[in-house]
Design goal:
Blueprint (H helix, E strand, L loop, with lengths): L1 E7 L11 H6 L1 E7 L7 E6 L11 H6 L3 E5 L12 H17 L4 E8 L1 H13 L24 E7 L3 H8 L30 H30 L9 E3 L28 H4 L9 E3 H8 L8 H5 L6 E6 L7 H10 L5 E6 L10 H17 L5
Parallel strand pairs: 3-4, 3-5, 5-6, 6-9, 9-10
Antiparallel strand pairs: 1-2, 2-4, 7-8
Helix pairs in contact: 3-4, 6-8
Length: about 375
């Protein structure tokens, strides 16, 4: 049985969701797949902005006796104004809602970008420290009601949006307003540079990616300072970031080697790098600091996992074109206790699309892990 859950959320004082219907509803949405005979354990799978109502794992967990929820945040389908701190509030609302429904064990599953988010949530639920967004705005998570989860599942996850975004940022773009002006010495798609890429090129490339992220952040800070001079005026602005899918690992599979093939989930990297639907092309000043700024975002998955105490399983696909083995290792190594497990899904792609046998295998493995860690009720 599938039930649509309307979970009351803590509203923001600002208009950060375009839809008036969504704001009036005041809810985040989840889809509950119930196990035959009922379950006192629920696995809630979440992502900052992807629609997980139809997540592939939900019916398979329910068939195996575990209730499962595909959980959305208020930013479903549009992360242009997303604040990671509000996503934490939304997860808190969902965990509290599920506790009130009688679940004795709640496991948060962070899939893809949900990995860093669930780590951030559990860290702040166990020991809150964050009093504002990086722009100095609410919410204050030290005053929020954030019930801790009982376990964490990191599923084909990366360490956090700002971290992976910086790893993907195209440093060859020399003019933020003209993405076709490129530095050939840093052009991932100029065959004179590779692949294969030299160690010297990769070092320069990674340094230039950091530098570009920091240049954008400095510009954002300047813009916010200018807006603040008129406290009754506009306090945020949208802007575009070009070239956000240019990780060298997309074109050179010898870097962080795995079973993946060259390319991305969105096609060849050169094309995916510029498509409007790509990662983080559209954002706002305040969202940039919370979501994409490498120096400002609170969503550093490994750091926050280091502040957690619950059983954690890290699963990664060996053919994943989005989250790489180094991501899984960094996440696993950050967990500070021994109740952790690192599991390779052999041949698994990012969302296991067209791989039903692996979906079943992952579901079986998750249930086994729940049982081994006394998380099944």
């Amino acid at each position: 049985m599938v039930e649509l859950l309307g979970i009351p959320m803590i509203a923001s004082a600002s208009i950060d969701v375009y839809s008036g219907v969504s704001r009036i509803a005041g809810k985040v949405w989840g889809s509950l797949h119930r196990a035959p005979g009922g379950s006192k354990t629920v696995v809630a799978v979440v992502h900052p902005s992807s629609n997980f109502l139809g997540h592939y794992l939900l019916p398979h967990l329910a068939e195996r006796g575990i209730d499962a929820v595909g959980l959305n945040t208020r930013y479903i389908g549009n992360d242009s104004t997303l604040l990671m701190e509000n996503c934490v509030l939304d997860i808190g609302s969902a965990v509290r809602f599920l506790r009130e429904r009688g679940y004795e064990k709640i496991v948060l599953g962070g899939n893809s970008g949900g990995g860093g988010l669930t780590a951030l949530y559990q860290s702040q639920a166990e020991s809150p420290t964050i009093t504002s967004t990086p722009a100095g705005d609410p919410p204050d998570l030290t005053k929020a009601d954030l019930p801790p989860a009982d376990g964490l599942l990191q599923l084909m996850a990366h360490p956090g949006r700002a971290i992976v975004y910086t790893e993907w940022l195209d440093p060859a773009i020399v003019d933020e307003h003209d993405p076709l002006r490129r530095d050939p010495e840093l052009d991932l798609f100029d065959p004179r540079n590779g692949p294969p890429f030299s160690a010297e090129f990769l070092q320069r490339y990674r340094e230039a990616q950091l530098a570009r992220n920091r240049r954008i952040t400095a510009w954002v800070r300047d813009q916010l300072a200018a807006l603040a001079k008129d406290p009754d005026g506009v306090q945020d602005l949208p802007f575009v970031v070009h070239g956000t899918t240019a990780d060298p690992r997309f074109v050179d599979v010898t870097i962080d080697p795995s079973d993946r093939v060259a390319g991305t989930m969105w096609g060849p990297a050169k094309q995916a790098n510029m498509i409007p639907a790509g990662l983080g092309h559209h954002t706002s000043l305040r969202s940039w600091l919370s979501q994409w700024s490498i120096d400002d975002s609170n969503c550093d998955g490994p750091y926050h996992l280091g502040r957690t105490s619950v059983p954690t399983m890290v699963m990664y696909g060996t053919a994943d074109q989005v989250c790489f083995p180094a991501h899984a290792r960094a996440i696993y190594d950050a967990v500070p206790h021994d109740r952790k497990e690192l599991v390779a899904v052999e041949g698994g792609s990012h969302y296991l699309q067209g791989q039903p046998e692996l979906v079943a295998w992952v579901a079986d493995r998750v249930v086994t892990w729940l049982e081994q860690n006394d998380l099944r009720r």
